[in-house]
From TrEMBL:
The keyword Zinc does not apply. This is Leucine-rich repeat-containing protein 14B. The keyword Repeat applies. Keywords: Leucine-rich repeat, Repeat. GO terms for cellular component: cytoplasm. InterPro entries: LRR_dom_sf, LRRC14/PRAME. It comes from Cuculus canorus (Common cuckoo). Belongs to the PRAME family. LRRC14 subfamily.
Length: 515
């Protein structure tokens, strides 16, 4: 609900000409209110003018757009291109306009509060994701430097120093611009301060170069994903040479570890990596999916001094020793999110799985068990394991061979979990042709009876409705949950895949010609 103050703010910013002329007489403490009203109405020019004349010490996007007394709705998920571009160009013009007004004192800009989501409600329907925000901020910093070099500027401009906190997303397509901005950071009034870094589609040489340009003492989150070919020796080099005192979250790319070809040197390397992870006293989130960690999980996790809250070891070929360690480790009592996808849990380690869930039950909020060969005969066991997990908010179990009857039985139970909000369930097995094998490959994934599936999905939603659990969202995203980062860079990733396929084909053709 909007307060009378917020209605008044909306009326004020809607008259752009009047607002622009009157802005100099507006009380400083009203700027946040006017900013949120302008953002809601997508008044780009007004947003630009507000930021250009910002009178306060800090500018925090998360707080400005979050729930307030005057308007409770959180707008931080609206990554509207018009609004965000107006913010950043306004920041540039704030610097250039600074000397004319002695009251300006902006010292800190925090852009980290934005949330990239699948559905946007802004009228322009054009978003500015994390990758684009990285590129635009870098571009604006370089434009500022160019302007200052080319023109006679007031000397007071060079006294301005504004820290800009941002979550950088670097790929090969925006690499050069980001590197130039970081190299010239000390000369620019806008100081890029990276608190989170995501790398994708980047060579190792470029990865190591750009990470050395950032201030690792500020970094809280590091994501190295997909097309960055980081292996264990590269990870050891990274951790030996760069210290991350505030790092809370680390994501490693697929195939970072491969215990199938371990030598004595590799074992020592793994021990060293474990020790380095143990020195990160703030680390509580770790993702190592699609590596081969068979029998080595304890070596990596036991040196950690802080219990993990989020752990992703999906498709890591864990064995009994790994599962037993995890169930009995001090992490078990603190885990809030766990992904064990790609492991044959019911058949390989059912006792350990029960122990898992009994340990996790007090804290577990998100559980992912995709492609775990959970069948109809395992549903009772699964229900017994989930029953203590009364804080569970999200349960994903795509890719399991469950019939429609088993799903109905499971959904009836899930209605009793009081905090559950999101369920991702598989296409029922009886919707596929007889004889389909699991895990189902991409070619056959969509070859099911869609009408039958829709009918079953309606029945499952009816179970939720009859239990007064309309608050639970149930869906079947065949190719996984929405990933804003992948969606934003899909063109580059597609081009990279085509290039890789072409190179492989050329090598194959060359080999054939030699024969």
């Amino acid at each position: 609900m909007k307060s009378l103050r917020f209605f008044s703010a909306e009326a004020f910013v809607s008259n752009e000409e009047f607002a622009r002329k009157s802005l100099s007489g507006v009380a400083h403490n009203l700027f946040p209110l006017l900013f949120k009203a302008s953002y809601l109405l997508e008044q780009g020019e007004m947003i630009h003018n507000l930021v250009k004349n910002w009178p306060l010490v800090d500018f925090n996007m998360g707080k400005l757009l979050g729930s307030t007394e005057d308007y409770q709705e959180d707008l931080s998920h609206r990554t509207c291109s018009v609004c965000l571009e107006s913010c950043l160009t306004g920041l540039r013009d704030y610097v250039l306009n600074h000397p004319s007004s002695p009251v300006k004192r902006l010292k800190l800009v925090d852009l980290t509060g934005m949330k990239d989501v699948e559905v946007q409600f802004c009228d322009c329907k054009k978003t500015m994701g994390r990758w684009a925000r990285t590129k635009l901020l870098s571009k604006i910093c370089l434009e500022l430097l160019f302007y200052l070099q080319q023109r006679q500027c007031d000397p007071r401009i060079f006294e301005i120093s504004i820290d800009v906190l941002i979550e950088l997303f670097v790929t090969d397509w925006n690499y050069e611009m980001v590197v130039q901005a970081l190299l010239k950071k000390c000369y620019c009034p806008l100081k890029i301060c990276c608190v989170a870094l995501r790398f994708d589609n980047l060579s190792l040489q470029k990865f190591f170069y750009i990470i050395k340009l950032t201030d690792s003492s500020l970094l809280r989150k590091l994501e190295i994903v997909h097309n960055v070919h980081l292996e264990m020796e590269h990870l050891e080099k990274l951790l030996n040479n760069i210290y991350f005192p505030l790092l809370t979250s680390l994501t490693l790319p697929a195939r970072t570890f491969n215990t199938q070809r371990f030598t004595a040197t590799d074992e020592q390397m793994l021990n060293n990596i474990g020790e380095k992870l143990g020195e990160m006293t703030q680390l509580t989130e770790l993702s190592m999916s699609f590596s081969i960690l068979t029998g080595r999980l304890q070596k990596l996790l036991s040196p950690l001094k802080t219990p993990l809250k989020i752990l992703d070891v999906s498709n890591c070929s864990l064995n009994h020793a790994d599962m037993s360690y995890l169930a009995n480790s001090f992490h078990a009592d603190h885990l809030e999110a766990l992904d064990l996808s790609g492991h044959n849990i019911p058949d390989l380690y059912p006792p350990t799985f029960f122990k898992f869930l009994s340990h996790f039950s007090s804290m577990l909020r998100s559980l992912t068990l995709e492609d775990c060969n959970i069948q109809d005969s395992h549903v009772n066991m699964l229900i017994l394991g989930l029953r203590p997990c009364q804080k569970l908010q999200e349960f994903k179990f795509l890719g399991n061979p469950l019939s429609s009857q088993a799903l109905k039985y499971l959904f009836t139970f899930l209605c009793g979990l009081p905090r559950l909000k999101n369920v991702e369930f598989p296409v029922p097995k009886d919707c596929y042709p007889v004889g389909i094998t699991y895990p189902i490959d991409d070619v056959n994934l969509c070859r099911f009876d869609h009408k039958k599936y829709e009918s079953i999905a309606e029945e499952l939603n009816l179970i939720l409705l009859q239990a007064n659990r309309e608050d639970i969202k149930a869906s079947t995203p065949l190719f996984g949950s929405y990933d804003a980062a992948i969606q934003e860079t899909k063109n580059e990733l597609g081009a990279c895949l085509i290039k890789s396929f072409k190179e492989t084909l050329e090598k194959f053709t060359t080999s054939l010609n030699k024969i």
